[in-house]
Amino acid sequence: MGNYKNHAKKISGEFYTPEIVIEYMIQRIFNLLEDQGRITMFSFSKFIDSLERITFCDPALGTGNFILGILQKIRSISVDFPDYSEKKYSSFIKKFLCNNIFGIELSRNSLQVCKKRLKDNLSLPEGFELRNFKLGNTLVNEDAFDILQIEETSLLRPFSWENFSGNNSTFDIIIGNPPYFNLKKMILLDDQVRLLFTYLRKSKFWRGFYRSSSDVYYYFLIKSLLHLKENGLLSFILPNSWIENKYADKLREFLLNYGIVEIVDLGPMLIFKEEGRWLNIENSILTIQNKPALDTFQMVKNDEIRVLDRDKFIGEIMNNYSRFNIAQTSLNKEKWILSPNLSLIREIEKNPSVVQLGEIATVAQGMSPGLKSVFVLSEEEVKKHEIEDDVLVPFITNRSVKKWFCQDSKKKCILPSKVEDISKYVNCYRYLNSYKEELQRGPDRQRLLKKGQIRFYDFSVYRNLNLFLTAKRKIICPYRSYNNRFAVDLKGLFGATDIYAIVPNDENMLYYLLGILNSTIFEFWYKEAGKRKGKMLEFFSHPLRKSPIPLINEKEEIKDHVKSIVKMSTRERGKETTEIVKKQAIIDQLIVEGMGIKQSDFKKILKLSSKL
Length: 612
Fold this sequence. Notes:
It contains 27 helices and 24 strands. The chain is an alpha/beta fold. 41% of the residues lie in helices and 17% in strands. The two termini are 45 Å apart. β7 (273-274) and β8 (277-278) form a beta hairpin. The protein has two domains: 4-318, Vaccinia Virus protein VP39 (Rossmann fold), CATH 3.40.50; 360-611, no CATH class. 39% of the residues are buried. The strands form six sheets. The protein has a nine-stranded mixed β-sheet with strand order 3-2-1-4-5-9-6-10-11. Strands 13-21-18-20-16 form a five-stranded mixed β-sheet. A three-stranded antiparallel β-sheet has the order 14-17-15.
């Protein structure tokens, strides 16, 4: 299975960790070890004596960056002691490498590079054996032989952690950067990942943790914690998705069995590069200990800094990031809300007047044409090709969704499923047939065509088709926006996957619900507890359905104000006039009074919303 990791790295984000990030993670571990009295800094002799009682492991070794970082840290500390001796250090480090440092790597080439780097950096003699750096798959136990065919199992490179010579397979420190990729998505691209997916699904060991759309790093984190000694420390740099992804629920539940020490949310900071290009992945550094949870753990959060600066990175974390404590008992397997305003968020959610949006409305994503440039046409293109009106539907782009109203996008969309036999519509069929070759390209469309699930002129996915055909009055929002931007649609507009529709169960709630969704209180909640990427809000199905909606007595008054705002906003083409601002403030105040929110809390919400 030597190729899958490299393939996954190109596709989905398993990249080498910048040196300064490694330096911070190792420094934090050494600080914690010193605070716990597990390493002694009084002299060189006592320092190395204390280190000999501590074992380190990187379960996703790569070419050894974390191991080299640990050794460099030990040396930088050692040389500052008055009783430092190069001869003693050389003797110690060889012994330390053989007895205290461990690593597992899937790629034979990467493992060879790691060993060569260690030998070169430490000037180790020819023939020096690095016996605790093993080739194997951290996630695959030897039960794979009972699950898969022998040839397939050999590709997975099963690994028994008990293979570490002279070790009981648990470690004091586990540190690293595991690979990141979504298993379900990757099985279509890599046969070896498909085998891993099959193994994880069928293994008795993984049965309690398996989720079909989980990321591979979830399993690395679980496996590593299971091999952590009592009071041992783990430090991983990870994508932030584990904090909120619904398929990480079993992982979050498992983590709560341990004592979280610190989460450093690096936020919008760009950490990883691929072929010179920064990757837009938000990351966090998780430090966790194998002991019962403390009352609180430290949350460190970066909201502003995007550039990874070697000279400033550690200083920024220590001094300029916001810091606050989170009660671990406030967390469960659901999305973790890691906010200093958690108590205020919970007050809103637990208010007796509040229900979740999914209880009173349907939330639906737009359809997936597959090749939008063919199906979505301007008015001029419709006239040019004389496309029949019966196969067309009005189309909205996310740019045309303004706060309160939908701007006319002046676009139409060909909807083949709107009619029984599209070939009867000669002009439309002729037009689509001229793009037949393009409509049959791409792995996804080819797969659907081969299975007979679509015809060449069909959308790739007619997602929520019936809802869009029948719901002439609904609320629309873009899937990403810097603020809450919900608009009323009275024309039965259709959208692609970058559009979400909200259809109230009771149509009389349409304008009331629009007022709540565009309110300051809702914006505050969504920015703090919904779904964000940097400063961008992500209005996806799951977090929208979970959103709190107050049902208060002032519905009619709020509806009247919203209707007035919609008219003014449409007339002013989205310009926020003084009158619109006043109306919005009245709606906010009605919600506050209706929910019984304290004025002091509302002022706090207004202040926080202006900063977020």
